[in-house]
């Protein structure tokens, strides 16, 4: 079979576009001041924000999760897939949180 260079270039471009799309996806998903709940982890596990920032947690798992502050400062209800919860951090400090359903899911917000 004779190789068709045009076809090869087209395939290479298609693969390059696909790779670019795959690499862009996590960047798009990682919106500012957002923590996603995915695969039974908070991602990122630690987030540093200036005082006054509203943080959004968004559940991407099929399983329900919660976001509960260690200090009792905030507590979400059960979050189903694609549900979100927000909290505005007014004061500097270190705020730890956990999923009350899966206590191995932990995270930290550092407010500066
Ligand atoms: Cu959970």
Q: What fraction of the residues are assigned to beta strands by DSSP?
A: 25-35%
**End-to-end distance, in Å?**
65 Å
Low-confidence stretches: none
Q: How many separate domains?
A: 1
Task: Write down the Rg.
Answer: 20 Å
- Number of separate helices: 1
Provide key terms for this protein:
binds copper (II) ion, 4-stranded mixed sheet, alpha/beta, Immunoglobulin-like, 8 strands, 112 residues, 1 helix
Structure description:
By secondary structure, the chain is of the alpha/beta class. It has one domain (29-111): Immunoglobulin-like. It has one helix and eight strands, in the order H-E-E-E-E-E-E-E-E. The protein has one helix spanning 5-29, and strands at 34-38, 41-43, 46-49, 53-59, 68-69, 84-89, 93-98, 106-111. Strands 2-1-4-6 form a four-stranded mixed sheet, with no helix packed on it. 17% of the residues are buried. The model has no long low-confidence stretch (mean pLDDT 87).
Q: Would you kindly provide a brief summary of this structure?
A:
The chain has 112 residues and is an alpha/beta fold. It has one helix at residues 5-29, and strands at residues 34-38, 41-43, 46-49, 53-59, 68-69, 84-89, 93-98, 106-111. The chain is built from one helix and eight strands; from the N terminus they run H-E-E-E-E-E-E-E-E.
